[in-house]
Amino acid sequence: MIDSALEYDFFLTKKDIISELKKETWLKNEDCLKDKIYMDQVYDILQSKPFKRMDNFIQHGTTTTLKHCLNVSYVSYKICKTLGFDYVSAARAGLLHDLFLYDWHECAKKTGNHFHGFTHPRVALNNAKKYYDLNKVEEDIIVKHMWPLTVIPPKYKEGYVVMYADKYCGFLETVNRFKNKSW
């Protein structure tokens, strides 16, 4: 049985998250690199070799996986900080949510795995656990960021923030690819 107060809070939070996502200015001029509080929480990840490897792979349009994860991380951080959620876990998991370290566009051709959308959260979590110390919130965010493709929804509200931020940033990155093309 679903607790109606919990359900109400979730939908209220969903509305707040969506309204916060409209602040696209967070993605411009790499404001995150100027945000000392944010940088204090994620600097170790940003400087690590596994994270830097993500710059070798395209995620959406012409956006690298590194840039995509930076976008998702900072948007999630700002939303969680505004709403009084665990912004540190959201920021760190946002950086690591796509730490699968391969070109997913080529993966199906090479391996026959056509289910990247379903399988990469577990790959990203395994890689993240190998290279970084994660808390339970961060682990849950990473492995469930593709919900509803991952059948079980996020356990924590920060997971919903990262999930929505991921879809929002992916959409903007894909649209920007077409906006920059001359027809």
Question: What does this molecule look like?
Answer:
The protein has 183 residues and is an all-alpha fold. It has a domain of 120 residues: Orthogonal Bundle (Hypothetical protein af1432). 65% of the residues lie in helices and 3% in strands. α2 packs parallel to α5. The longest helix is centred in the C-terminal third of the chain and has 23 residues. The radius of gyration is 16 Å and the shape is globular. It starts with a helix and ends with a helix. The N terminus is likely disordered.
| Total number of beta strands | 2
**Count of DSSP helices?**
9
Order of helices and strands, N to C?
A: HHHEEHHHHHH
**Binned strand content:** under 5%
CATH architecture descriptor text of the domain at 57-176? Orthogonal Bundle
**Order of strands, widest sheet:** 1-2
Q: Report the major sheet.
A: 2 strands, antiparallel
The overall pLDDT average reads: 79
Rg, Å, rounded: 16 Å
| 3D shape | globular
Q: Uncertain runs with pLDDT below 50, 5 residues or more?
A: 1-12
Structural class: mainly alpha
CATH superfamily of the domain at 57-176: Hypothetical protein af1432
Provide the CATH topology of the domain at 57-176. Answer: Hypothetical protein af1432
* Highest-level CATH class of the domain at 57-176: Mainly Alpha
Give the distance, in angstroms, between the N- and C-terminal Cα atoms.
53 Å
| Percent helix | 55-70%
